[in-house]
Amino acid sequence: MKRLLILAAVLMMLTVSCKKSTPQPTDDQPTPAQSLIARLDTLRKRGYMYGHQDDPFYGITWQWEQGRSDTYELMGDYPAVLGFDLGGLEEGHDKNLDSVPFNWIREEAIKHYQRGGILTFSWHPHNPAHPEQNAWYVEDTTVVGSVLPDSVNHELFASWMQMTADFLKTLKTDDGEPIPFILRPWHEYNGSWFWWGQKLCSDQEFKDFWRMTHDFYEAQLPGQIVWSCSPNLQGGWSEEQFLSRWPGDDIIDLIGEDCYQWGTEEDFISQTSADVEFLSRYALQHGKLFAITECGMQNSPTPDWWGRVFRPVIERADQPCYFLPWRNWHADHFGASKDASTADDFKAYATQAHILFLKDIQ
Ligand code: BMA
Q: For the purposes of burial, counting CB atoms within 10 Å of the CB of 320, is it exposed (0-12), middle (13-18) or buried (19 or more)?
């Protein structure tokens, strides 16, 4: 009898310890998106990361060569954040608007996540009221209104969102876990070069459009998306101006600044500094993250641009998470590369400022 009791006690202990070592999912387990937000929040206290659009597909002097990366060839490491664009999925194309095959995007995105990297997606869909025209077709100011629920182009636009959602659903680990990512739709909305831009819709239409987008994807990919809202360089915001098109604290996780130097260095420095101070402060006060979600200088004619012009600007921000130079497409290159005149300066800046690359966040 005594032996039996001991056996029963041992069995009970084993059952308890088995339960302990296999955590059961509970309602308060964070979603993949919440885990990514927490990770970004932890990382920004250590420094800011380097991101790059289309890094695995082409560089300044090469295109479509598997295994290459301008970032790796200059820095000996990959970007911490990789950016990809979904434009073209809505047309059922195999390649995006920049000729990158979607299957290859999926492959690189999954690979990057599995090696510890962070992903961000943008989407430049065609104009839904003029589907043969691209995202830059701005001759019609009724387009945003026309895709809202019950409006004439809603069904078509919902089918476009569905096609992109179906692609994003294929971002899974080998174990079938959904991969979290940052989604940055309707960016640069304070400019008027996209069909969702400032002069192309009313404040209310824009905010309704954002909320519709958010609610659609959250229903399709619940808890998988970190939402980024990124105005273009404004040159100083008033709170009233900013809030007039702010989609809402309840649906945005990360505020971005898209900022290129097209004009003079002085203007870039003063205007971008004013923006990042305002936006990063708003972000901190409202429990949001902040990043420079697109940036660069076309053709990089100024060899010390990164260290001398860009660095003081990003360092005016309160706890930026990352900066993401745009794609290294021919002469339109914006990011780090050994083939750019900015190579040495970028390397010195990245090293001195302890910018975080992939290995730093793994
Ligand atoms: C723009 C340019 C375009 C490109 C688009 C989406 O800034 O680089 O050539 O098609 O982004 O990547």
A: buried
CB atoms within 10 A of CB 204: 12
CA nearest 231: which of 215, 252, 205?
252
Of 67, 71, 51, the residue nearest 121 (C-alpha):
51
3-state secondary structure of 152: coil
Residue of 53, 86, 97, 299 with the most ligand 1 atoms within 8 Å of its CB, for mutation:
97
pLDDT at residue 2 is higher than 50: no
Q: What is the mean pLDDT of residues 121-147?
A: 98
CA 168/CA 159 separation, integer angstroms:
14
Degrees to nearest 5, angle at CA 326 with 323 and 327: 140
Q: Please tell me the pTM assigned to this model.
A: 0.92
Indicate if ligand 1 lies below 6 Å from the C-beta of 100. Answer: no
Q: Is 333 left (phi over 0), alpha (psi -120 to 50) or beta?
A: beta
Helix H or strand E encompassing 75: helix 70-75
